[in-house]
Amino acid sequence: MRVLRCRPRGAQSRTDLLAKLDRSCGPNLGRSGRAAAPRTCAVGLHQARGELKVAKSAFITGITGQDGSYLAELLLGKGYTVHGLIRRSSTFNTSRIDHLYRDPHDPEARLFLHYGDLSDGSRLVTLLNEIRPDEVYNLGAQSHVRVSFEEPTHTGDSTGIGTMRLLEAVRMTGLDCRFYQASSSEMFGASPPPQNEDTPFYPRSPYGAAKVYSYWVTKNYREAYGLFAVNGILFNHESPRRGETFVTRKITRAVARIAAGLEEHVYLGNLDAVRDWGYAPEYVEGMWRMLQADTPDDYVVATGTGASVRDFVVAAFEHAGLDWERHVRFDERYLRPTEVDALVGDASKAKALLGWQATVLPGSLAQIMVEADRAALECEGRVHIDTVQLPGWPTPGSVHG
Ligand code: NAP
Ligand code: F7E
Predict the structure, then answer these.
(1) Residue with the nearest Cα to atom 38 of ligand 1?
(2) What is the model's pLDDT at position 396?
(3) In the chain, which residues have pLDDT < 50?
(4) Catalytic-residue membership of 186
(5) Phi, psi angles (nearest 5°) of residue 172
(6) Is residue 135 annotated as a catalytic residue, yes or no?
(7) Residue 124 per-residue DSSP state
(8) Longest C-alpha distance within the chain, in Å?
(9) Tell me, what's the pLDDT at 28?
């Protein structure tokens, strides 16, 4: 199934969005206040099955990333008001959420963006005190494992201490909210598969170690302060919105470009590593389920199916009718000082207690991603955004914030 959705030239340009962002920050910004300060953001009311329901609000760090964009789409589709933390940068990087954005002057607007950074604790306090969300999703992180060997201190600061700053902001503002921490299968590292909630952590990178820190402080705030705080221990999950330097997207992008005659080769590192690759939209739905449970707990989210990088390469190239061995070359620059050989998750707890189960397995995931990258090439020069390939997912037109 190929879905082509290019934004027409000139529509929702970066300049338009910048202007909107400036305006949106006005009403959302405010003086730091007392813990009991009233909400400054409207809480929506809507009529459902004859009842008047108060719509929930959520705060998402990492909203510009793969998971943040799908989560925002999902929550807007459920009627939430969504507040996202975005970093000031000299170039715009909101392409994954531009299709969800609406001018904040529009009374229907339900997506609001706020400048901030996980390195800036006082800003997190100010923002949470103003927004006072019902749910906080901490997805912001330096999330690239290979890069964490090059920038270990920065990774520790954003991926590790950043979580503590956010938890402290929740505690200091006296916020009565539910807190989701984006924990990772990288925490298991060298512990052999299958990995579940009881598997010992043995991280193999500065990234993995920073996530272990975040996992434990999240658990500690649950035990020490009674915060409804959960760790979602998510195994690799991918999509057409995956960053281009993660291996799956690097492969499917290369397949699309090679099939189009734009490139001849792609250079990869270790093809023997085994990962449990799922489809990101399903995984963000798992995050949401964790925060709707009666009690806070930690859950593994995975497909339970392992595939090597080579398997993924074969599936992606075969889908485009290409012989991978003619196009894939080795480059030792993509090897890591310490590798995680095999991650395959056991998500039985999430299935039993949350009713969550993956439906998209690595083979069909590779096909979804190749198709989307081929469609994106046809949009060259314009923004392409994929449509989620899951039954029941809110349609893009219905989730505008
Ligand atoms: P991603 O695409 O790399 O997105 C990371 C997000 O974090 C981006 O929005 C980024 O903002 C933001 N960010 C980075 N540093 C920040 C800082 N100092 N302050 C505020 N925001 C910051 O990651 P993802 O794949 O969506 O993953 C979401 C979360 O789940 C991450 O915490 C990741 O470590 C974790 N996780 C991912 C997987 C996976 O397979 N995808 C598995 C387990 C856990 P910019 O756009 O400005 O860079
Ligand atoms: O590597 C091998 C590489 O960078 C997967 C993050 O979302 O998932 C992700 O971390 C495997 C590794 O993801 C290349 O050595 C071979 O064995 O796509 P990746 P990751 O390291 O598993 C976890 C769960 C997270 O939490 C992280 O945030 O592929 N590999 N050749 C390569 N990897 C890359 N990136 N590039 C290559 O050329």
Answers:
(1) 236
(2) 61
(3) 1-5, 7-51
(4) yes
(5) -65, -30
(6) no
(7) H
(8) 64
(9) 33
> What is the pLDDT at residue 269?
98
CA–CA distance, 349 with 361 (Å, rounded to integer):
19
User: Closest ligand 1 atom, CA of 66?
Assistant: 26
184 in ligand 2 pocket by Cβ < 6 Å? yes
Give residues with Cβ within 8 angstroms of 135, minimum separation 6. Answer: 56, 57, 58, 59, 80, 177, 178, 179, 180, 291
Residue 380 confidence (pLDDT): 77
Cβ atoms within 10 Å of 135's Cβ, excluding its own: 21
Cα–Cα distance, 74 to 54 (Å, whole number): 17
Tokens representing residue 230 in the block = 């959960």
- Output the pTM of the full model: 0.91
Res 240: pLDDT: 98
- Which residues 6+ apart lie within 8 Å of 344 measured at CB? 193, 194, 195, 235, 274, 276, 302, 304, 305, 306
Residue type, 342: A
Q: In 10 A of CB 212, how many CB atoms?
A: 20
Task: Give me the residue label for tokens 């090597």.
Answer: 308
For residue 383, what pLDDT is reported? 76
- Residues 6+ positions from 305 with CB-CB distance below 8 Å: 276, 344, 361, 362
Of all protein residues, whose CA lies closest to atom 45 belonging to ligand 1?
Answer: 64
Task: Return the amino acid letter for 99.
Answer: H
- Cα separation, 165 vs 45, in Å, equals 31
Tell me the C-alpha distance between 61 and 89, whole Å.
15
Nearest C-alpha to atom 34 of ligand 2 is from which residue? 247
